[in-house]
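Methods, example record. To illustrate the input and output format used throughout this study, we show the complete record for MFS transporter. The sequence lines were provided to the predictor; the line carrying structure tokens was produced by it.
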Amino acid sequence: MTTPTALSAPPSDRTRWLALAIVMTAAFMDLVDVTIVNIAIPSIQRNEHASVGQIQWITAGYALAFAAGLITGGRLGDIHGRKRLFLVGIGGFTLASALCGFATNPEMLVASRFLQGGMAALMVPQVLSIVHATFPAHERGKVFGLFGAIVGLGAVSGPLLGALLTEWNLFGLEWRPIFLINLPVGVLAWLLGRRFITESRAPKALKLDLVGVALVTLGLLMLLYPLIRGRELGWPLWGYVSMAGALVVFAGLVAYERRKAARDGSPLVELSLFRVKSFAAGIAVQTVFGVALGIFFLVWTLYMQVGLGWSPLRAGLTGVPFSLAVSTAAGLSVQQLVPRFGRKVLQAGALVMGAGVLLYLWEAGHYGLAIASWQMALPLVVMGLGMGLIVAPLTDAVLSEVPREHAGSASGLINTVQQMGNALGLGLVAVVFYGQIGDRLAPDRVGPAFVHAFQHALWYVAGIMGVIFLLMSALPKRPAQHVEGAGEETPAQAVEATPAVEREPEPQPAG
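The corresponding predicted structure is encoded as:
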């Protein structure tokens, strides 16, 4: 590790825009990878003879590893260099993608997905940190506008790309190209990143809290494993003991974090933030919202491809109106609606999304197996509009009353709990969806059983949206302004490290 020097001359204009393109590519890879897998799940289950539990771990394992390592990944970058950790992360992500693509059995695929999520936790936090280190404050608005466009593009293109790669069955590889496509992109991004990204560190980086990470991971595993495996094993007693034990582990985490904060001021979870009512409520919203999304997207894919017998491409195209509605409403929400109406926009989003879920539930029962893609468009658009009203302004709303010096820690925690909620939702699929499907169904009963289970799961999602609506009443009425942030950056931009960074000398071209 080289020693940080005094602030050096900023990178050239060409170099920094190349660096931006590289880190945006990495962010796009992560976004696509999250959405691309769901559409291929039925193909993986069919071709690899994966169990229900293994299917859930393929999706939940990534989210769990990502959530557990996200805050630590950001701190490692602050300590050892954002460029260095970015290269480690994207290199590991690419390797894990290869292992996923060449997995010889479901167990290897699950393990590779855990590794992939862990590497994403090293890679993703560096993206916005590198942007902060590379671009002056007056240019970051344009840069974050580009980042928002990338997020929207990833949301739209992920399911479609996954559907096309699965449908085409390239070289007879079935679902494997959804992972292998990361190889050339990842290798190229690693090589270019090594050459064009400027190294930076935080002058006052927080210390690592590995005990905190271990406790969080243990608690989540003790909670998720029984949920995912319980149904297949007949809900044994040890499962209930494990879930109860998870609560004990989380209580131990709180006690340890208090001691850690008093000892060196760098806990994994800054517990003092929860004294801020709006932040505590916002964390609850993010967690519960993640649960709803985790349930819906996996169940939705299984409903269309297994229950209705649709091809991956048809299922992927059916979701396009939803993605477009999310992107459209997100832009309107941040730019026009929230500045004028404040918290009411987010609450309206919860009600609109809940209404879309109920409409979808009615249509699924009314049309049954004869439902068409165009008939799903209306509930999906309504759901997408509601989701778009929530996702874009929610982080600023949660951070509005957080002291400026804690904005980085709070942002990291927001992203972490959303991923944890997503993993929990994926685990609950065994209960709210598969729990309604009998074992060894006759072929003519598969469709009706999946339609019924889909409706059952949607009741849970609708109920969760009602809970979110109530929790949002604790958010600030006008979340657009930061209490102590009357500066040049919004809280959402302060995702990793708000202090000034020290640059190392311009790296020499590789080779």
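Annotations derived from this record:
Residues 275-484 form a domain with the Growth Hormone; Chain: A; fold (CATH 1.20.1250.20).
The chain has three domains: 11-206, 209-265, 275-484.
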